[in-house]
Design brief:
By secondary structure, the chain is of the alpha/beta class. Helix content is 30%, strand content 27%. It has seven helices and twelve strands. A hairpin with a 3-residue loop joins strand 2 and strand 3 (96-103).
């Protein structure tokens, strides 16, 4: 009697497992994938393009949704689609995935020693590689005086610099604090250069950004590794108000470590 009862219990458990397995591979397998873009997109707007992107992700739609390797999917999406940034992959039970993404925007153009132009976004991800460059107000900002470490990098890789990498990447976030977009930066500045100068306050060299506008005005931001957000804010607020002075003088922005209120210093061009 005990064995009969045990057989019934085991049979019920086996049937339940079989049922759950069948449901997992039917009810819970992926049958819907949606995009949710956190910024406006022109590249990925069409249904045809989104279908192509989803195909490049190599998502196994025959297995339960909760067994998917999201890291693998994200890597496939971003490596096969350089302009796509995957922020998160959301699972919506029973069988839907939502791809939370953003379209990467061209911001920096960095020239290599062999005369290739690496077009990168704010994170220095390579979006395009060109053999020539036109400095228009809608194009990427030319970055001068930096050396590329991984000169053999390809589209989809992240560019590595010998020095100043984090400083360059901080430019975008500093402008974002003033509500300026990537498009705004490209419309104002045609180039930015990075140099290191002696800093008497810290007894070592510190970085200086020189932003050049399309009117060929130069704006220097010294000690760029400290208070960069504040300096960019000052830059954008003072330049329009001091246009007459600014048109004949170099505008130098600095923060004295001993007195943060003395932020702006105007020096006549020699």
């Amino acid at each position: 009697m005990k064995y009969k009862r045990l057989i019934i219990i085991l049979g019920s458990l086996f049937s339940l497992i079989v049922l759950c397995t069948i449901l997992s591979f039917t009810l819970f397998k992926v049958n819907k994938i949606e995009f949710d873009f956190e910024n406006s997109t022109s590249i990925f707007a069409s249904i045809e393009k989104q279908t192509e992107v989803i195909k490049s992700a190599d998502i196994n739609t025959k297995i339960p949704i909760f067994t998917l390797n999201k890291k693998y999917i994200k890597n496939n999406l971003e490596s096969n689609n350089p302009y796509l940034k995957v922020i998160n992959i959301e699972t919506v039970f029973p069988n839907k995935l939502i791809l939370h993404c953003a379209e990467r925007e061209e911001l920096f153009c960095i020239k290599s020693r062999d005369n290739l132009y690496f077009i990168c976004d704010e994170e220095l991800k390579i979006l395009n590689i060109q053999q020539s460059y036109s400095n228009l107000q809608t194009n990427a900002v030319l970055v001068n005086d930096v050396d590329i470490l991984n000169t053999g990098a390809s589209v989809g890789d992240f560019l590595e610099l010998y020095s100043g990498q984090e400083l360059i990447k901080n430019i975008s976030s500093a402008f974002a604090h003033t509500n300026k977009t990537v498009a705004d930066i490209k419309a104002i500045f045609k180039s930015v250069s990075l140099k290191y100068e002696d800093n008497v306050f810290v007894a070592k060299k510190s970085p200086t950004f020189t932003f050049t506008t399309f009117d060929n005005f130069e704006i220097e931001v010294r000690n760029a590794n400290s208070f960069l957000n504040s300096k960019i804010n000052i830059l954008l607020n003072y330049v329009p108000e001091l246009y007459e002075y600014y048109s004949t003088n170099k505008f130098i922005i600095d923060i004295n470590p001993n007195n943060i209120d003395e932020i702006v210093t105007l020096l006549e061009r020699a």
